[in-house]
Design a protein that fits this description.
322 residues, Aldo/ket_reductase_CS, 11 helices, eight-stranded parallel β-sheet, oxidoreductase, binds adenosine-2'-5'-diphosphate, globular
């Protein structure tokens, strides 16, 4: 049975369950572990699964869906266009459909605004294929009937302003890193005002990845709210995310945590207010993802923070209140 959780309505009219299963396994692939994770989640009542071409596990996600006993129509399935396919949207989309073994996806996202060459070299900001050109090719997919909604991921207000000015279809969602250390208040408001739903990736802050210890899951406010609900810090973070109007897509391959993550708490206004302030504590307003470390020159997959429109400095530290 589907879990009893809120749904959001996209600007296309389709509904999206507020909690989905993230399928990034920490490195590309995951194979049968990813397949089992999806089956366990579907059994536990998840009806929203988020994968990507770049996660390297679309075949296994598709197999899990087919063998789960849950009908395809009941499941909201997202996949994403990889950077090195920006110049061949239709071909890449068809390949994802084939790998997933489905006739349609519910949501197709441009994974990043940056394009790469076919052999994975970042194409400088502003050069073709630009994200505007790629988005126009994604718009054309809507006519095929094989995708219900299209959206973007990792887009800032600066890039969305260009996209909305130069193209016809307003993205249904913008999937970005979002959690109590990075609530992206301005971006969320800007998107809400234009009917774009924020989907929060890494809503748990990827505990274990950041210097090997969770950051906000250990925060005293989160821990005390969790205790008062007899629940876990992760449930507090996810419930906060949903109550503030974002979809959340935690990844877990652990059956107990999979169940926990789709059991939302009813947080009070005072608890929401305390959670809204976590990023204001010293050292807390930041991204918690490792891609900030990959290049020493302050670029993310080839573009500077300024080109991306991300209000951050090296390491993913937010420059001013957002
Ligand atoms: P696991 O798969 O062993 O449960 P995010 O979705 O923010 O990127 O975080 C994913 C990470 O968080 C994974 O390492 C996952 O490990 C862990 N995780 C998932 N659910 C929980 C939870 N309820 N409590 C603590 N850690 C969790």
């Amino acid at each position: 049975m589907a879990a009893n959780i809120p749904q959001f309505t996209l600007n296309t009219g389709y509904k999206i369950p507020s909690v989905g299963l993230g399928c990034w396994m920490g490195s590309p692939g995951g194979g049968e572990i990813a397949e089992q994770m999806c089956k366990t989640a579907l059994q536990a009542g998840y009806r929203h699964i988020d994968t990507a071409y770049g996660y390297g596990n679309e075949e296994y996600v598709g197999k899990a869906i087919r063998e789960s006993g849950v009908s395809r129509e009941e499941i909201f399935l997202t996949t994403k266009l990889p950077n090195h396919h920006h110049h061949k949207v239709k071909e890449s989309f068809e390949e994802s459909l084939r790998k997933l073994g489905v006739d349609y996806v519910d949501l197709y996202l441009m994974h990043w605004p940056q394009a790469y060459t076919e052999d994975n070299k970042p194409i400088p900001y502003g050069r073709s294929p630009t994200f505007v050109e790629t988005w126009k090719d994604m718009e054309a997919l809507l006519d095929t009937g094989k995708v219900r909604s299209i959206g973007v991921s990792n887009f800032s207000i600066k890039l969305l302003e260009v996209l909305l000015r130069e193209t016809d279809v307003v993205p249904a969602t913008n999937q970005v890193e979002c959690h109590p250390c990075l609530p992206s208040v301005d971006l969320k408001l800007w998107c809400e005002q234009r009917g774009i739903l924020i989907t929060a990736y890494s809503p748990l802050g990827r505990p274990g990845e950041f210097d090997g210890k969770p950051v906000f899951l250990d925060d005293p406010s989160v821990v005390s709210i969790a205790k008062s609900h007899n629940a876990s810090p992760a449930q507090v973070a996810l419930s906060w995310g949903v109550k503030r109007g974002t979809a959340v897509i935690p990844k877990s391959q652990n059956p107990e945590r999979i169940k926990q993550n789709i059991t939302l708490l009813d947080l009070t206004d005072e608890e929401m207010a305390a959670l809204n302030e976590i990023h204001l504590k010293p050292g807390m307003h930041r991204s918690l993802l490792r891609y900030h470390e990959y290049s020493g020159d302050g670029t993310i997959f080839g573009w500077t923070y300024e080109q991306l429109g991300w209000n951050m400095t090296k390491g993913g530290i937010v420059c001013s209140l957002d």
